[in-house]
Design brief:
The chain has helices at 3-16, 63-76, 91-103, 115-129, 143-150, 164-173, 197-206, 229-232, 261-270, 272-275, 282-295, 299-318, 338-352, 381-397; strands at residues 26-28, 35-39, 45-50, 108-112, 134-138, 155-159, 180-185, 187-188, 193-194, 209-214, 241-245, 255-259, 331-334, 354-355, 358-359, 370-373. It has a 7-stranded mixed beta sheet, with helices on both faces. Strands 1-2-3-14 form a 4-stranded mixed beta sheet, with helices on one face. A 3-stranded antiparallel beta sheet has the order 13-16-15. It folds into 2 domains: 24-56 and 300-405, Aspartate Aminotransferase, domain 1; 62-296, 3-Layer(aba) Sandwich (Aspartate Aminotransferase, domain 2), CATH 3.40.640. By secondary structure, it is of the alpha/beta class. Bound molecules: pyridoxal-5'-phosphate.
């Protein structure tokens, strides 16, 4: 085989479909979020405002987080030096797990290097713990859940996105005695819509199934202590396994599950993705713990993010731009074509100093390509005005429709 030619063909296919990904090289500047510097491909530098980051609350530059990281770094050095089993468990890891268990009012929490790994490792391990397990997985679940469910050697059923009736049908069709798990997200990050958590919990109760929720796009931001949508809705106690990230609203890195003592102990003992990898650096664990602790009480920051999202949505709707609005903090602007989406993103960057990454297949279905904005407390009125004016201008320039999509 001509390996180089095969690689070129694969890459060319992406170019032809307009979904070849180019990474924008930016330098974020502490204290100046969301402003950053773009290192242009021609070697120049240009100021940009980041509108597509998932550091949803600006915690990546919060003094509480940075101080904790500096202290831990000075106290313990850079890396953890080992897997959790072999010298890589420190007071920082233990403290973070305790903070997360408390956050979710669970007996325990288990730390992973990312929420991707937490999903993949946990979901692929559960069939070892519950032989014959059937996993019912929402059709729009994140790639990390899909990978975990696919690799488990167990059975899977995919229900239509957020479709409670379809899930019921699938549950009814299976052996009543088979162990079951329902896996879903609280907020789907590309549309910003919410999962019907209560209805899924009711089905789980009726069919004696476990519940698994990914709250990656909700932790820190929803609920009175930032534990997520399940907390906001008073449903946290009905979820068996909660998955979250420390890399988005918490502004650092890492992922976790929170569950019963026994569940965490079993996953800890059986999941290769937990066992055979170096643990997070202590400074990361310290920063994440400080962030989680801080956001248990900083309701003002949460409120400010919601206000920013509402303002942006109102203003874009006022211009007749086709945004999706499910009442969450995510603002998707539908373009519906990969080439147009990329072109708009390029023009925003080049002409207006606005950085928003185009979102294409396979992250979203073909024909629903979009620009996804993430307004946050660090985006001020000046940034908002510039964004709205730029979009108005570009929409006219590209002669795109202004009919509003249903939310
Ligand atoms: C729904 C969902 N789950 C899990 C992840 C993975 O999180 P992490 O970045 O911590 O790996 C992401 C995105 O990155 C996500 O969108």
């Amino acid at each position: 085989m001509n390996y180089e030619a095969a690689l070129s063909t694969a890459i060319q296919r992406l170019h032809d479909e307009g979904r070849y990904r180019t990474f924008i090289d930016i330098e974020r500047t502490r204290g100046q979020f969301p402003d950053a510097v773009w290192n242009r491909p021609d070697g120049g530098k240009a100021p940009v405002t980041v509108w597509c980051g998932n550091d949803y609350l600006g915690m990546g530059q919060h003094p509480v987080v940075l101080n904790a990281m500096h202290e831990a770094l000075d106290a313990t050095g850079a890396g953890s030096g080992g897997t959790r089993n072999i010298s890589g468990t420190t007071v920082y890891h233990k403290a973070l797990e305790a903070e997360l268990a408390d956050l979710h009012r669970k007996e325990a929490a288990l730390l992973f290097t990312s929420a991707y790994i937490a999903n993949d490792a946990t979901l692929s391990t559960l069939p070892k713990l519950f032989p014959g397990l059937i996993i019912y997985s929402d059709a729009l679940n994140h790639a990390s859940m899909i990978e975990g469910v696919r690799r488990n050697g167990g059975q899977k059923r995919i229900f239509r996105h957020n479709d409670v009736a379809h899930l019921r049908e699938l549950l009814e069709a299976d052996d009543a005695d088979a162990p079951k798990l329902i896996a879903f997200e609280s907020i789907y990050s590309m549309d910003g819509d919410f999962g019907p958590i209560e209805a899924f919990c009711d089905l789980a109760l009726e069919f004696n199934a476990l519940t698994y929720i990914d709250e990656v796009h909700a932790v820190g931001m929803y609920g009175p202590r930032g534990a997520g949508v399940a907390e906001r809705d008073g449903l946290m106690g009905r979820i068996d396994i909660i998955n979250g990230t420390l890399a988005k609203a918490y502004g650092v890195m890492g992922g976790y599950i929170a569950a019963s003592d026994r569940m965490c102990d079993a996953v800890r003992s059986y999941a290769p993705g937990f066992i055979f990898t170096t643990s997070l650096p202590p400074a990361i664990a310290a920063g994440a713990a400080a962030s989680v602790r801080h956001l248990k009480t900083d309701q003002a920051l949460r409120d400010s993010q919601q206000t920013q999202a509402k303002i942006l949505k109102l203003r874009l709707k006022g211009l007749g731009l086709p945004i999706i609005d499910h009442g969450s903090h995510i603002v998707p602007l539908m373009v519906g074509d990969p080439k147009h989406t990329k072109m708009m993103s390029d023009m925003l960057l080049e002409q207006f100093g606005i950085y928003v990454q185009p979102i294409n297949f396979p992250t979203v279905p073909r024909g629903t390509e979009r620009l996804r904005f993430t307004p946050s407390p660090v985006h001020g009125p000046r940034e908002m005005d510039r964004l709205v004016a730029a979009l108005d201008n570009l929409w006219a320039h590209c002669a795109l429709n202004r009919a509003e999509m249903a939310g």
